[in-house]
Amino acid sequence: MSNSPSYQSNFLNSLSISQRIILGFILLILMSFIITAFNVTAMRDFKQKFSSFRQVSNSTSLMLKVDKDIADLQRTILAYSNTEKSATFSQILALYQKLTSDIEKLIEADSKQGSTHQKELSKIQNSVIDFKEKIDDLQKTRSYREILIGETLEQRFAKITNDMTAIFSSLEQSDNPIILSKIWQAQLLISSAETLQNRYFSKHEFQVKKKFLENISEASKIIEQSIVKSNQQKASKMLVEILTTLSSIEVTFNQAVQADRNFLFLVNVVIAGESSELSHNSDQLKQRYLKEQQKLFTDTKNYIDESERISISVSIIGATLAILLAFILGRRISKPLISITDTFSHLSKGDEIAEIPGVNRRDEIGQLAQAANVFKETNSRTKELLVQTELVTEELKEREYALTLAAEKAEEASKAKSQFLANMSHELRTPMNAILGMLALLKRTPLNRPQKDYTQKTEGAARSLLALLNDILDISKAEAGKIELDPVPFKLKHLLRNLEVILSTEISTKPISLAFDVQDGMPQYFVGDEMRLQQILINLGGNAIKFTEKGSITVKVNSSVDQENNHSLTFRVFDTGIGISEENQKKIFEGFTQAEASTTRRFGGTGLGLAISQTLVDLMGGQLELKSQLGKGSCFYFSIKLRLASHQQIEKLHLDRIENTEIEYENRLEGKKILVVEDNLVNQHVARELLEQEGADVVVVNDGQEALDKLKQAKESNNSDFFDAVLMDLQMPVMDGLTASRAIRESLNLKELIIVAMTANAMQKDKRECLEAGMNDHLGKPFDIHQVVKVLDQLWGKAN
Amino acid sequence: MADKPMKRREFLSQGIKAVTIGAAAINAPYVIANLKPTVRVMGTIVTLQEEIRQKAMADLGINLVFEARGEGELIQKATTSPSEFDLYEQWTDSIKTLWQANAIQPIKTEKLTYWNEINQLSKKGSLSGESPVGVGDAPYKILNVQTDGTLGTNFTGNISFLPYVHNVDSFGYNTDVIPKGKPYETESWGWLLDPAHHGKVGIVNAPTIGLFDLALAAQARGFVKFTDISNMTIEELDKLFEVLLKYKRDKHFSGFWNTVPQSAEFMTSGRTAIGSMFSPGVSMANGQGTPVTYAAPKEGYRAWHGVMCISRACKGKTKDAAYEYMNWWLSGWAGAFIARQGYYISNPERSRSLLSSNEWDYWYGGKPTKTPLKGTDGKISVPAGDVRRGGSYENRFSHVAVWNTVMENYEYSLDRWYEFLLA
Questions:
Q1: Residue B290 host element (H or E)
Q2: Which of A758, A767, A741 lies closest to A680 in space, CA to CA?
Q3: Which of A261, A332, A396, B348 has the fewest CB atoms nearer than 10 Å to its CB?
């Protein structure tokens, strides 16, 4: 928008675009109206002018007629005056009539035209009316003159001529020559006078008139003298007669001169003057008419030209104005529109715009501009939000990162803890292995009664310690989420019998009855983690025994089948012990917690059992729950879904049971050569002793390298009694078990050799690593000879 | 005059008189003794003025019937029908014609009360007896009826006309168009034929007057030389008309006027800027706002002298009444009256007492007027401080070039005039 604050722009600015367009159209329509109005007016004017022109033309032609009439009248009067026979007075009158009637017509035409020449016309008309009098005078005057000249004078001269002739004839008879010559002289003078008279009236020369009068006078004198001299009476009388005639001729001549003068004055001055004035006036008027006609013609022509010019000019101006208007309006509309469009496109691209154009306008563009302004503000707000969001995101990321770090740290910490626990359990198990191994070896020796009792009690304590150790290991595993179930087929009855054995041992001397209530007819063979299930039930039963002084402990087992043939087993362990208060019922599932601090002192225990049990139940898909009444007893119960074991699994279970029962403790490894790779000397001893008791040929090495050397040596010697199996410890100095195993498979190329890991690292991870390193199986520590035999038998059986 | 609207009383009294006259004509034998004599006066509007008629009728107790006509018509009518008028008032140039045509009868000086007061201009040719008389029909040359019946200078007791009104004429010019000249110095008859005034020149349609104006003009411009301008020869006339026709055909002349009002109208309408004029015409034009100066040409004036003649047919009581009227004219009032219109009277002293000294000094003395002067119509006709163009009565009549005259070759001039008019 222009910044010049003119009224127009202000006015235009105050209009909306539609109003501007309407205004533009109105202006255009107005313009076309003006042009049309102009054309119509011009046409009307032209019509009027044309009509005026026609009227003036009519008047002009009438005027020309009048002018011609006047000229005709003048000519006829002149002809008449000159006594031409062709011209008669009636002709003059006729012409006069024509003139007056033409003038009347002209006056009528003029009055129709608005009496523009009334004054001049009435002047002419009055002149013409006056003229009539002169014409009448003309006839009178002319005839008077004609009578005097043409008749009277002529008659008189004729009379004199006759008289003279008569005198001559009479005097011839006498002989008076003097008189005769005198009369002859007079006769000559008179004849001459007659000629002079005629000449005068045609030429009007004063000298002629003078000569005429002189002649008459001279003739009169001569006649007079002759009368006196004449003695002849008759002749004298005749001469007197002639003298009288001469005198009358003189008088008549003078009268004729005056008549002629009057006639001349009338014709040459009065009528000519009138005629001249009439001609002048008529000519003037004629000129005026012609001029008017010419002017009207020129005016009309000019008017047409001018109209044409104006029309063209107006059209051109109109067109120019229209274009200009369109341009201005277009500029005033399109420019701001383009500008606002640009603004919007910039805004949509998110460009920074300092100021929205046309915000102060009051039209549609102003509204658009305001919309753009809103858009712009929203944009900038969005941008701010975006920035803030980015900041927040950044912060969140940082936090996330921090959390991740924290989590990693925590994980690391957890790992470290788990590692620690693993290490711990390994380190604890290793001596425990040694203790239990030694106790087992000790029991085989011949002992006395107290020794046997001590050995038994020591073994019991060692086993409790091991159980505690296992508990701690389990809880740490649970916390680290590293407990993994190991589902195997099992027989529920077998499980419950084992449980009865274990719990009965724990009850020992307490006045408590242990009862098993198993639902009649329920399935017996399931696939599940038998050991863990047993562990749970031992925990629950152990607790029940622990917190029950007298009464009964009941283990109740129910099963139900759902539509998908899944069996749900519910285990309940009732006791009639001290019970658990409601507030403590929640706490007791947490690790390292017992119902009361005092219970620890009173009943002992780590308080880990329930936590481990709950974790295990959770893993099995159930939930360990509790119903208890303080002082009356408690009931711990859970339900788990278990798959039924297949027939093959059930059969295999039977076979295992039979083997286990048939094979006794000796010579099960007869003829087998076993390489034990173990760095701990006690464990080397335990292993050698137990294996050798089973009839095995045992070679012990201290580390992986030694094992490799021994195997390489044995391989190279190509001895027939090559090692049947390698029992490999994992954590060893010089070369660990995993490295050594890989080397056996790779370097020594002993693919068939049975390698079984022996490790306190009883984690699934460890087991996997062992298998990956090429080992065949895995055995936990403490070293259980039955387990070892069983595993080795299985492996050898497979190999064969 | 007839154009002038009459007051109601005038109209009524006139009407009654007209009726009375009509009745008198029918019942003449019985009532003639009781009738005032009626004098029919035929003439020009110069002297046939209603005020004069009324005054004279009142003073004389006679009836006056005025018939004003144009120059040409008058002489025509007078010469052919003497019985149709009793008194004839025109100019000295008509006397010869009238006399020759036997239209008028001699006037007996013994019956003229103021004959002796009539100045020497009419009787002897010049006022002082020293100044040049001027060529042409000077009044004294045709005043006296000679014993042989001709008109001449010898006093016989019978005169052809009563000398009364006279003046000198020249031409008037519109000073809006033509710069004002100096009297007797630059103003010249030659102006009439000055090509500078082409198409703006008006001439009186009377050969005895207009021809002289044109002859003086042609002579002043050196086109023609006249032996006697008042009596041109055929050759001189031919030569003159040769010039005039050339001018006429060249449309140098814009009009030929027949009456005084017409001459004024020519001026006021702009049809003419210069032209033959009479004193009242100049007054009229000035009265209508057109500043017309009445020139004092260095070549001298064209003088004219009014004539009052008795018709040949006039006799008895009418003739007595005519004499009464003639005497009344010289008795003072009329002289004073026409003095205010710029005309002179043949016995000025008789009128002097009826004029203010200022008026006398202006009109006759040629002195500047101290106060504005009123005309006979009551309107101011002369502004204060104005001096009469050409000066005093004596001075003006000392500059007469030619008297209006009917030349010997008058008829010939008429023939040529016709040509001239209609050329």
A1: none
A2: A758
A3: A396
> In A607-703, which ranges are continuous DSSP H helix?
609-619, 647-662, 681-693
Tell me if A755 sits within 8 A of A728, measured CB to CB. Answer: yes
pLDDT of B22 reads: 37
Q: What is the pLDDT of residue A426?
A: 66
Distance (Å, whole) CA A403 – CA A407: 6
Tokens of B8: 């109601």
The percent helix, strand, coil of chain B (3-state, each to 5) is: 45, 20, 40
In the DSSP assignment, the letter for residue A781 is: S
Chain B hits for A276, Cβ within 8 Å: 205, 256, 421-422
pTM of the full predicted structure? Answer: 0.56
Q: Are A675 and A726 in contact (CB under 8 A)?
A: yes
Annotate A702-758 with DSSP letters as a single string. Answer: SSHHHHHHHHHHHHHHT-SS--SEEEEESS-SSS-HHHHHHHHHHTS---S-EEEEE
Q: Which residue pairs from A174-180 have beta carbons closer than 8 angstroms and sit at least 24 positions apart in sequence? A: A174/A232, A174/A235, A176/A230, A176/A231, A176/A232, A178/A229, A179/A226, A179/A229, A179/A230, A179/A235
Amino acid at B388: R
Residue B11 has pLDDT above 60, yes or no: no
Distance of CA A145 to the CA centre of its chain: 117
Residue A550 forms contact with B (CB below 8 Å): no
The C-alpha of A270 sits at a distance from chain B's nearest C-alpha, in angstroms, of 6
Is residue A418 within 8 A of residue A472, CB to CB? The reply is: no
Distance CA B318, CA B330 (A): 19
For residues B85 and B90, give the distance between their C-alpha atoms in angstroms, rounded to a whole number.
13
pLDDT above 90 for B380: no
Query: Minimal CA–CA distance to A141: which of B270, B285, B101?
Result: B101
Instruction: Choose between A519 and A667: higher pLDDT.
Output: A519
Judge whether A331 is closer than 8 Å to chain B, CB to CB.
no
Under DSSP, the state recorded for A350 is T
Side chain identity, residue A726: V
What are the residues whose beta carbons fall under 8 Å from the beta carbon of A136, sequence distance 6 or more? Answer: none
Cβ–Cβ contact B73 with A under 8 A:
yes
Asked whether the beta carbons of residue A273 and residue B72 sit closer than 8 angstroms, the reply is yes
Distances (CA, A) of A101 to A98, A128, A274, A538, A725: 5, 11, 19, 165, 172
Asked if pLDDT for residue B412 goes beyond 70, the answer is yes
The answer to whether A783 and A440 have CB atoms below 8 angstroms apart is no
Going across the sheet that includes B158-159, the strands are B107-108, B158-159, B144-145, B151-152
Write out residues 122-161 of A within 8 Å (CB-CB) of B: 137, 141, 144
Number of residues that make up chain A = 800
pLDDT at B3 over 60: no
Q: How far apart, in whole angstroms, are the C-alpha atoms of residue A430 and residue A731?
A: 11
Q: Give me the half-sphere count of Cα atoms (radius 13 Å) on the Cβ side of residue A27.
A: 18
CA distance A210 to A215: 9
ipTM: 0.80
CA distance A725 to A714: 13
pLDDT above 60: residue B12 = no
Is the predicted pLDDT of residue A596 greater than 70, yes or no? no
Secondary structure (DSSP) of B296-356: --TT-EEEEEEEEEEETT--HHHHHHHHHHHHHHTTSHHHHHHHTTT-B-SSTHHHHTTS-
Whether residues A257 and B79 touch (CB distance < 8 A) is answered with no
Check CB contact under 8 Å for B72 and A270: yes
Tokens of A183: 């009369």
Q: How many CA atoms lie within 13 A of B260 on its CB side?
A: 19
CB A121, CB A106: distance < 8 Å: yes
Q: Which two tokens stand for residue A544?
A: 């029940």
